[in-house]
Design a protein that fits this description.
The complex is a heterotrimer of chains A (117), B (497) and C (140). With 117 residues, chain A is mainly alpha-helical. Helix content of chain A is 71%, strand content 0%. Chain A has 5 helices and no strands. Chain B is built from 22 helices and 2 strands. The chains are: A mainly alpha (117), B mainly alpha (497), C mainly alpha (140).
Chain lengths: 117, 497, 140
């Protein structure tokens, strides 16, 4: 019962591990960034789902409603989403520069070109 | 006006650098004006940090409610002896780095991109200061990412294409670290329903779900460990330091890891300490083992480096080992030693990286071989490097001696005398790698490249020597650093009870 | 893309709606879900849709990168400027109560200005990102 009850955490952890695995296992830098993005997004889900209050409605002030979901995690994660966008943008722009400098976005080929790395 | 200024020092500490970053872009047409503004901003920030430290020492912790919203609900900026001390380190280094940047930056960045570089530097400065002064756990994450994102940008500006891969590597590891911290903070929020650090510290001991707390602890420590290059998580650091522009290396090496150490102290001691350490899990011993491994491997690998910046980067990993060692002792004396080394390492690594930046400026190379005989052509820079090196080794009358002395004392107080021996071995390894450079630069026959160089420009030598003299001054007159570090260590230990 | 009549007509119909919706989200943000972040992204999405269909050059003529490079820091300055203003008026940083004679009006004005700053920055930054990636010639 408790296993099903905590399904939001399980989904978040599953997504996080999938993203993390992609970051670790793929040699293609773009795929790494995709994995990284997924890893971050899973945390957004973790936060957003933790704000749920049983029987609560959307936190907008409406007459007749007294029971709201917790809006704080949503606001927090808005900031984290912006951070995620910025990270992805920086990562992709770095990849473009790497592609221009090395002619490839495959990690092992880059390592081969720079022996010291 | 003066009133508005004095009452709001905690906010202004962050807001002034934050304002200067977009102004860099608005004023982008006048690079000189941008540089002047940034220099003045760092000096102002240094003044504010000094004033705050004085207030904290005289009147105790300062609390500031952002937006007028009271503490557990709004974001609180809370400054006690610990973070006033760290803010002083960060602003002090920044105040010296900016004058140094004037001549050093054009070597790496040209034309209209110069103001962008300063904007990144100011954003990084803002992020580090924000992490330092805030009293809100989520705010730490936000500022952590501000500083990290700007750091990726700064590192990628090096001349070598490897700066790009170094930056990317750091981006991947740094983002994973940052996200881990975010997960940890999320768990703390689930447990207590608050994000205010003081409130968290008060509520966590009543928490019954200890397993969640342990998970949060693990995520936060690993996340911050990535940022501070704790031993097995240090892989990003050597390349990032080696290939970044000199100015960025000096700034990041002497401030970023220090602030990360502060965040670790804050989370482990102030916030989670009281709730966690009654459990009897030997966290301290784990930290000591990692610290010793980092200390020895860092120093050992440094000996075999061909690139002088990489050598100093590995030495940084070793020095972080010393700091962690002090933290692992979990005693007032140990923490005091760690905090002292925080300050002292910023001074010595700042001086060393600045001197190396001067060599690179004239030589155009970072390889130790190319430095053959360069010491005789650039005596002032070379002298600065030697002084910094002596401080790194821990020769008496330099700051390095002070912190290592306290570290040995802390080890002996705990009865861990083999650790005291290991600290000395670490120092001996530092002698080896510093001597390698000194031998090549002074005694070797000048290479063709070295024969042509002149002394580094004054605009770079003066900031370098300011740090070198600070190394000696704080090594002789230890009242201020030892006193504040003692107070800060006591503040941290008090929260454990 | 010049000959894709359907796309062009649909885009011409949709883009004003998207921009209008962005403005609604921006200015209604203090009463209902919304605010500067969302509005900025939606507004930028509308412009990016235009750029996808009618070409990057036309878009850059209408909204030059130079202007966006000023707008982007300007938004941050509006945000921080509100904070500094409250400091000078005697309150804490970003304490909107001090912005008007009455605290409620002050809060209203404060959140409006701050969200405006956020919106301007997010919009111009998103668009700058798009320009930076889309406008880069291969091998440049």
């Amino acid at each position: 019962m408790t296993v099903l009850h905590l399904y939001n955490y399980e989904i978040a952890i599953f997504l996080a591990m999938v993203g993390f695995y992609v970051v670790v296992s793929r040699g293609n830098l773009v795929k790494k960034v995709a994995g990284l993005s997924m890893f971050q997004t899973s945390v957004f889900i973790l936060y957003i789902s933790m704000g749920v209050v049983d029987g609560g409605t959307v936190p907008i002030l409406v007459e007749g409603m007294t029971h709201y979901s917790n809006p704080v995690p949503h606001v927090l994660i808005l900031t984290a989403i912006v951070v995620g966008v910025a990270t992805t943008a920086v990562a992709l722009s770095l990849i473009i520069r790497i592609k221009e400098a090395y002619g490839t976005v495959e990690e092992d080929e880059i390592h081969e070109q720079d022996k010291s790395f | 006006m003066a009133h508005a200024f004095l009452d709001n020092l905690p906010a202004l500490q962050v807001v002034i650098p934050l304002l200067s970053a977009p102004l860099c872009l608005v004023l982008a047409r006048w690079p000189r004006l941008v540089w002047t503004m940034c220099t003045l901003v760092t000096w102002t920030a240094f003044g504010i940090a000094l004033a705050l430290l004085q207030t904290v020492l005289a009147e105790g912790p300062v609390s500031y409610a952002m937006g007028g919203w009271a503490a557990p609900w709004g974001i609180e900026y809370r400054i006690d002896a610990v973070n006033a001390y760290v803010a002083l380190i960060v602003t002090g280094i920044a105040a010296v780095v900016l004058p140094y940047a004037y001549r050093s930056v054009p070597l790496y960045i040209h034309g209209e991109r110069v103001p962008l570089f300063y904007a990144l530097l100011m954003l990084c400065f803002t992020g580090l200061l924000g992490m330092t002064v805030t009293g809100d756990a989520f705010n730490v994450f936000v500022f952590l990412e501000i500083s990290s994102l700007s750091m990726y940008g700064l590192i990628s500006q090096g001349r070598d294409r490897r700066s790009l891969t170094a930056s990317f590597q750091y981006l991947v590891m740094g983002t994973i670290g940052g996200t881990f911290v975010l997960i940890g903070i999320g768990f703390l929020y689930v447990l207590t329903g608050t994000l205010n650090m003081a409130d968290l510290a008060a509520r966590l001991p009543d928490v019954t779900q200890v397993r969640t707390l342990h998970t949060a602890f693990a995520f936060i420590v690993v996340g911050i460990g990535l940022k501070l290059a704790m031993f097995p998580l240090h892989l990003w650091l050597p390349n990032a330091y080696a290939y970044a522009p000199s100015t960025a290396t000096v700034f990041i090496a002497s401030t970023a890891t220090k602030v990360a150490v502060y965040i670790l102290l804050r989370f482990v001691y102030t916030i989670m300490g009281p709730a966690l350490f009654s459990e009897g899990i030997p966290y301290g011993q784990i930290a000591i083992v990692l610290a010793v491994m980092g200390l020895l491997t860092g120093s050992f690998v440094a000996i075999f480096q061909q690139n002088i910046k990489r050598m100093l980067a590995y030495s940084s990993i070793a020095q972080i080992g010393y700091i962690l060692l002090g933290i692992g002792f979990a005693s007032v004396l140990g923490l005091q030693a760690a905090l002292l080394h925080l300050f002292n390492h910023a001074l010595m690594k700042g001086a060393l990286f600045m001197a190396v930046g001067c060599f690179v400026y004239r030589l155009g190379s970072m390889s130790i071989e190319d430095m053959a005989g360069v010491g005789r052509r650039m005596p002032w820079t070379f002298a600065a490097f030697v002084m910094g090196g002596l401080s790194l080794i821990g020769v008496p009358l330099t700051v390095g001696f002070v912190s290592k002395w306290y570290l040995v004392l802390a080890a002996l107080q705990k009865g861990y005398w083999p650790l005291a021996v290991l600290i000395l071995i670490g120092s001996l390894l530092a002698v080896v790698y510093i001597w390698r450079v000194v031998e090549t630069a002074w005694f070797a026959k000048p290479s063709l490249r070295a024969a042509e160089v002149r002394e580094a420009p004054l605009a770079m030598l003066i900031p370098t020597w300011i740090l070198v003299l600070a190394n000696i001054y704080f090594g002789v007159n230890t009242t201020m650093t030892v006193g504040v570090a003692d107070l800060a260590a006591r503040t941290l230990m008090e929260s454990m009870r | 893309m010049l000959h894709h009549t359907v796309l062009r007509v649909v885009a011409k119909l949709l883009i004003p709606m998207i921009l209008l919706f962005a403005l609604y989200v921006q200015f209604h943000g203090d009463y209902s879900p919304g605010g500067g972040f969302q509005a900025g992204v939606i507004f930028a999405a509308g412009i990016i849709l235009y750029a996808l269909i009618f070409g990057l050059e036309d878009t850059m003529d209408a909204l030059p990168p130079g202007v966006l490079k000023i707008l982007s820091p300007l938004g941050v300055l509006i945000y921080a400027g509100v904070g500094v203003d409250t400091l000078l008026l005697g309150g804490n940083f970003l304490d909107y109560n001090f912005l008007a004679h009455e605290p409620t009006h002050g809060q209203h004005l404060g959140i409006f200005l701050v969200e405006l700053g956020v919106g301007v920055t997010v919009f111009s930054t998103m668009l700058l990102l798009y320009y930076a990636f889309a406008g880069r010639e291969p091998g440049q």
